[in-house]
Amino acid sequence: MPKILIVEDNELSRDMLSRRLRRKGFEVLVATDGQEGIAMAQRELPDLVLMDLSLPDLDGWEATRRLKKDAKTQHIPVIALTAHAMSGDREKAIDAGCDEYDTKPIDLRRLLSKMVRFVEDPEASGGEKSLA
Ligand code: MN
Fold first, then answer.
1. From ligand 1's centre to the CA of 110, what distance in Å?
2. What is the pLDDT of residues 27-70, one digit of tens each?
3. What is the pTM of this model?
4. Three-state SS at 45
5. How far is the CA of 59 from the centre of ligand 1 (A)?
6. Is 78 in contact with 98 (CB distance < 8 Å)?
7. At what angle do helices 60-69 and 34-44 cross, to 10 degrees?
8. Residue 132 C-alpha to ligand 1 middle, in angstroms?
9. CB within 8 A of 25, min separation 6: which ones?
10. Rounded to whole angstroms, how far apart are CA atoms 7 and 45?
11. DSSP summary character for residue 130
12. How far is the CA of 32 from the centre of ligand 1 (A)?
């Protein structure tokens, strides 16, 4: 079961997204700010990070930069999430080391289609036991 770390300061967004992803079969961890996100990524080594960009204190860009600088976490794909598709936001996110980018409000189908480039879709593999 792919382990997803959601770093999001907005409680409502965080709860909604984590609930929906758990329902899809993902294991979900949550962090509420950049510092906690980095600490949790280092400790839990998730398969993917969904990183809100606008976070208090340490923002998502800086948190991503730090994850990508750390040999322990740099392999973990990061999908940036932002509330406004401001021009330049995507470039800034990619420059910070984000592997993908998506905008809020979350369109779960669209987000999942980006996530499955990096992690297995638990529903696609559901039931069937892999022989590998
Ligand atoms: Mn935020």
1. 20
2. 999 999 999 999 999 999 999 999 999 999 899 999 999 999 99
3. 0.92
4. coil
5. 9
6. yes
7. 30
8. 40
9. 1, 122, 123, 126
10. 14
11. P
12. 9
